[in-house]
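C-alpha cells for chain A. Residues wanted.
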C-alpha cells in the first residue's frame, strides 16, 4: 500500500466543499462514493483511509487546520463504508488492524 499524495488545489477544493455542504453532507457524499467504488475495487475503505492520511500529511506540511478537519471526515467515511461492506458481505474477513469492529 503506497502513500497517496494530493495537491493543495485538491485539498482546497475539499475545504470549500466542507464549508459549502457541511461536515455531515460531505461525509455522506464520501460514503456514497466509497460504496459506488466497491463495485470496481475490493477495498474502497482502505482507499479512503489513504486519502484521509494524505490530508493529514498536507495539514502537517502546510499547518492549515482545514486539511485536518477534512481528513477526520474522510476517515469517518472510511469506517462507515467498512461497516456497511461487512454488513453486506458476511464472508468478508474483518480488518482489525485498521478498523474497529467491536466497541
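Reply:
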Amino acid at each position: 500500500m503506497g502513500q497517496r499524495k494530493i495537491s493543495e488545489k485538491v485539498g482546497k477544493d475539499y475545504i470549500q466543499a466542507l464549508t459549502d455542504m457541511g461536515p455531515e453532507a460531505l461525509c455522506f457524499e464520501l460514503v456514497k462514493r466509497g460504496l459506488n467504488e466497491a463495485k470496481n475495487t475490493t477495498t474502497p475503505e482502505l482507499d479512503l483511509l489513504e486519502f484521509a492520511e494524505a490530508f493529514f500529511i498536507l495539514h502537517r506540511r502546510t499547518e492549515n487546520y482545514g486539511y485536518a478537519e477534512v481528513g477526520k471526515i474522510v476517515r469517518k467515511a472510511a469506517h462507515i463504508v467498512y461497516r456497511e461492506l461487512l454488513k453486506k458481505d458476511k464472508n468478508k474477513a474483518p480488518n482489525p488492524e485498521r478498523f474497529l469492529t467491536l466497541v
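The chain is about 70% helix and 0% strand. Residues 24 and 32 are 12 Å apart (CA to CA).
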